[in-house]
Amino acid sequence: MKALNPKAPSIEIDHGDLGALMPAMQMDFPVTDASLLNGLAVNDRIDFTVENAPQGMKVVAIRKK
Ligand SMILES: [Cu+2]
Q1: pTM for this structure?
Q2: Do the bridges between strand 3-5 and strand 25-30 make them parallel or antiparallel, or are there none, so unpaired?
Q3: How many A from CA of 38 to the centre of ligand 1?
């Protein structure tokens, strides 16, 4: 993970291939709640869950590896 923005809230992730969703890239994802960013630091390796809603993609869960 490359950057945290608790005010947005969002998270910048250098992610691998996400199957049908998108290829590997570095990008900013909105997160459902800033509390998901608690305890994370830049360059932590994470697992994350993305919800692909009609209004756009949102990260709904983050877990440190
Ligand atoms: Cu992407």
Answers
A1: 0.92
A2: unpaired
A3: 22
